[in-house]
Amino acid sequence: MMTSRELIQLFNDTRTHTEHICSFLETEDYVVQPVVDVSPPKWHLGHTTWFFEEFVLKNNAPDYQIYDERYAYVFNSYYESAGDKVVRSDRGNLSRPTVSDVYSYRKHVTDALLKYLKKENPSEKILEVIELGCHHEKQHQELLLTDIKYIFGNNPLHPVYSEDFEENPIQDFPQEWLEVKEGVYEIGHNKSKDFCYDNELGFHKIYLHSYQISNKLVTNKEYLEFMADGGYLQVLLWHAEAWDWINLHEIRSPFYWHKVEGEWQQYTLKGLKPLNPDAPVTHLSYYEAFAYAQWKGMRLPTEFEWEVAQKNFEWGSRWEWTESAYSPYPFYTKEPGALGEYNGKFMVNQKVLRGGSVATARNHTRYTYRNFFHPHLRWQFTGLRLAK
Amino acid sequence: MMTSRELIQLFNDTRTHTEHICSFLETEDYVVQPVVDVSPPKWHLGHTTWFFEEFVLKNNAPDYQIYDERYAYVFNSYYESAGDKVVRSDRGNLSRPTVSDVYSYRKHVTDALLKYLKKENPSEKILEVIELGCHHEKQHQELLLTDIKYIFGNNPLHPVYSEDFEENPIQDFPQEWLEVKEGVYEIGHNKSKDFCYDNELGFHKIYLHSYQISNKLVTNKEYLEFMADGGYLQVLLWHAEAWDWINLHEIRSPFYWHKVEGEWQQYTLKGLKPLNPDAPVTHLSYYEAFAYAQWKGMRLPTEFEWEVAQKNFEWGSRWEWTESAYSPYPFYTKEPGALGEYNGKFMVNQKVLRGGSVATARNHTRYTYRNFFHPHLRWQFTGLRLAK
Amino acid sequence: MMTSRELIQLFNDTRTHTEHICSFLETEDYVVQPVVDVSPPKWHLGHTTWFFEEFVLKNNAPDYQIYDERYAYVFNSYYESAGDKVVRSDRGNLSRPTVSDVYSYRKHVTDALLKYLKKENPSEKILEVIELGCHHEKQHQELLLTDIKYIFGNNPLHPVYSEDFEENPIQDFPQEWLEVKEGVYEIGHNKSKDFCYDNELGFHKIYLHSYQISNKLVTNKEYLEFMADGGYLQVLLWHAEAWDWINLHEIRSPFYWHKVEGEWQQYTLKGLKPLNPDAPVTHLSYYEAFAYAQWKGMRLPTEFEWEVAQKNFEWGSRWEWTESAYSPYPFYTKEPGALGEYNGKFMVNQKVLRGGSVATARNHTRYTYRNFFHPHLRWQFTGLRLAK
Amino acid sequence: MMTSRELIQLFNDTRTHTEHICSFLETEDYVVQPVVDVSPPKWHLGHTTWFFEEFVLKNNAPDYQIYDERYAYVFNSYYESAGDKVVRSDRGNLSRPTVSDVYSYRKHVTDALLKYLKKENPSEKILEVIELGCHHEKQHQELLLTDIKYIFGNNPLHPVYSEDFEENPIQDFPQEWLEVKEGVYEIGHNKSKDFCYDNELGFHKIYLHSYQISNKLVTNKEYLEFMADGGYLQVLLWHAEAWDWINLHEIRSPFYWHKVEGEWQQYTLKGLKPLNPDAPVTHLSYYEAFAYAQWKGMRLPTEFEWEVAQKNFEWGSRWEWTESAYSPYPFYTKEPGALGEYNGKFMVNQKVLRGGSVATARNHTRYTYRNFFHPHLRWQFTGLRLAK
Questions:
Q1: Minimal Cβ distance to C73: which of D26, D86, D156
Q2: What's the domain range around C29?
Q3: Tens-digit pLDDT profile for residues D130-153
Q4: How many angstroms separate the Cα of B230 from the Cα of each of B223, B292, C218?
Q5: What ipTM did this prediction achieve?
Q6: Bond preceding residue B183 cis, omega within 30 of 0
Q7: A6 contacts: CB under 8 Å, gap ≥ 6
Q8: Are residues A333 and A229 in the same domain?
């Protein structure tokens, strides 16, 4: 467990960084929700604040005044047991509270939590919830970046977020196959002093047959070969539901790709740019990652194969789709109460992604981290690594 | 036809008044589109501006510089023959252009049009298009008010638009039945000097059997009697599709009514207020207006009955649903080209409303004016008057 | 009013003819419902039977035994006030009662009604309901033919219904324009001894400006010219909602037309046949009829123009779309109770069709008859006649 | 591999048994498709026949005459690479081919295949496809029973399929917990002489931590306790998507349960019967099975835990939901060509079920058999067994 002093530092850094991410926005950019999976930036600002108010301050901080009773309704996300909430698809329909109101709300809660941390002597249990709240906010920092990318990338004017945000780091080394021997391996987080989510527990054994895994992510150039070979038109490469999905939505390339006068361009947070063939391919669905692997005569690794091999390759620029469905580990137990809704209730019909991305907050990911999304989603910085 | 000087006055007043309506808004309020029928206020500001740029300046004003080529795509509404456009349901997904950009666009076009009107000698045909553009903008002034009401009225914080906007004027006189004799009557606009829309032409004869029409609109108090008698539960009062619709959407009262601690309240542009029993009922669908009339053993007037009798009663606070479907008058012809899309292409599956409302722009309505909406829509200031 | 003897004759003929229409079917053909507007033939057989049981026998015939209490639930169509019913879209999901059961049910009710008519002395009111029931069944005879055509015409095997059913009679005379003078005309059914529906009452006056109307229906050859000129691609010819509809459904020709090896064929009740250029075009929506008229620089007649002129032209092979919305006549009143649901509750968002079709039962239509359908529907034998 | 003689026996038995299942139906029962997951019985009869025609006879049997070229379009299910096909939701819209035609088609193919098997000397590869075709038809035998149950169970008349079909065998012994020790285990089918599907291959090792598994299925009585405790109303027991799903569809009990005058009844293939408290609960979704286990403070076994323990308990009356997502085994490879579509393309977003049910064909299931369905489906004879 962190010391109170470390926690104050973490809390301060986290709150400040969230606001730094938003400092590049115009007021209007905070408001819109162009698709249900994307939330308005002001909602992220309010929701991460509500988390501390609801789960820490409300019932623990002496004399804490709730900023506005109605905000719980506006800023609850999915905690069914914490009361009613705005329907998710309505988040972008709310012009009020204004951005300025939301920043006031943030300040009110930030100040109150710091005062509480400094003046009172919170129990270990509460310190843990505050630490969870910081990691929760770091997750929303990543969502802020990917949601802003969606908001800008689907605007016909293609605005620039920041000229300094580099989302396409090159893996400048030769591709090799790393071999892993058959045997019993240990998986998961050995709950020590360091923070982890409940879905990384408990530490347990699995059996792996021998396999090979690539030291590099698949690049745009490689993915273009798949496209050139008619990969999107070969039914036998695709899952049944994937085939229906790509045809219904006429998907023929990764998300954010635009063919402009015969050349592929990619919308990035720096604006519309020529596609870099050497960058790792990104913004594809699990379906597309799977079809690409099929086309190569290979496969995606399981999350266990990834975790066992990861110390031998670089990772962190793309969330890597794995073949593993998101399921509970053998000794998994949920927290009691609303915080038990954090992870467990999503453990069906989703795929595990491992690693991290250019948008992931600093110190937020780790090799046991289990991210998860529905197989058709593409707005995160997803990518893939082959196994065989 | 107006003189050029009168037209400059009209144009200036119209442009200024649109911006006055928006002066009560926060930046965030300009952006959202909570339902497809409602457009974001900044879209109205841009669209009414695009109208002058597209149909007047672009092809007529010497040296006119288009403000931004991409705005035509953003601000076209339904003129299919004027090029591609943002899908209507996406208007609220666009954070850019910003509100400030849109005001700059307005100023650019306002200035250019004034310069064009003052310096050049526009043909009568072009003056007519400019006059049409002013009336078009007045229509959007009404939509701005009703769309703002929707945006605020569906926000859980129920913001106030303006304490000065009185939307519930009382008809403070006794109810009487006005008698009209059987015979041939003349209907429509006798295209003289004054402006009218093409759908009010041409002047023609119709035959009416004798009828009676009320001098008053139906009030909240009267509508509450219908509700108290289970009007929403009596199937025989409703059209087949109306019955399905009220049950699907669980409609049991007019729009914007809220039962708070046993008392009816109404969201108004002044905020949430106790329902005034003497005010004319408003925000109901044609279906509800029809069912109410059935329940009274009476009926709605046709648009012809309304037009013939109107000089004998007060009107203008509510758009009054009529029994008439929106169809072309006998001598109706469409303008050639895109402006022909203004009215004619909506002449199916809509109902005519007559009169005007508390939100209608000054000098915009007249006794031949034919407004039209789909029978289920309720976000306009609609009301009803009985006939028998 | 008919004599009891005439009514027995009418009843017997009607019941027998319904079964004759079905005599060309296989058992399987009685069961399916390929689209919600089409009902399974066995449902029509049962529903027309239930009508007599529900509205005549149940409450009037002494000692009448209800055949099966559960059938009311299965065979009620839209009489909300007559109890619960199978959801319309579920009619094709019911394999039971079997066809054989339904014929037994028919026999039970037919016999009971004849016995009741012969032995008792029904009041005039009840005789009227029985007469209405016969006309109701005649309407379903037409629906049986059009629904069977839909069932067969949308089956990839394109079965033949009957080699003897001629649906394309030629109008073998030159096209002429009939002139009608301006003035006051009388419209509607002068409720005498003859049967009519409530929507044809009451007899009333209207005013018509002078107009011309064609003595012929538009032919396939003429419609092909519209298609060849890109009629389906010219946005200015179409209503706004029509344009969306034809593009969503990729409609580029009338229903039942198939281009087979470069030649137009038409599915008919005789099977797939080469399109006859001289036959009146059929199976088109109001939207298409309207767009064709626009393209010709003409218009559709109103239902009043049609009624006033009809004695000077042949009609009866196609239901002719008119420009008139389906609205109540000035003196219209609904029956009390469930039978009041027969016509009135559909008087919104539908268009009036006049005339009759090759599928209309003998002695069923008349020049005051007001048929009505939603403007997008095409499975009836619809057609059009121009006016100007 | 089977001998040719054994295969003839298997083929004959399978074809005959399919027709026996249908021998209890009326013609009408063969035709309907009340929901997209359920196919009309005549479609099953035709599809299982088409399988042999398409994958065996067409390209291998000398002089084989295709029965009707158009049937491939009608009876293909999901083999995208084998040509176009009727959209799945349209299967119930086809009255033709008639039931009698389909039986003729069956006879034509059965006879041709027997002739081919007896006269020619098919390669081992082809014999394997024929064996696969028999197992394929056995799968459809189970679907026939569950689809017939759906067709009858959702008909308001609740017809009886057969008084002899016992679907509720009692497990008449005490509940015990079977212990399994931690260690490495072998999983999957050791492809020997016996038939298995490709998804059961290859034989491989997994690691299990120690666990306990029940020797009995959960009973109706036990499930009623969950319901009585408000299990369907406690949000923390449910997956997020499950919670939305049960509320959208107002699911408050297993499928086919009806509360009749205060008592629970269950529709069975014998008709509507009082619920037997001692029978294993059935017709529930994975979501409900999971929520029940949560409520007990336990969990569902993984498919590996089930497979390792299965020799110590009885199974076969219910398909048992497991916690395992349907994923490829380590050495899984797809067949080349259309038969490769048999299993692999469904390996996403589905859950594995183990065991077999009262409707499973004789000799069809085995302890390595991996059945799979989407987590919300309830029309199969599903059930659950607890682990901890």
A1: D156
A2: 4-153
A3: 999 999 999 999 999 999 999 999
A4: 11, 11, 50
A5: 0.96
A6: no
A7: none
A8: yes
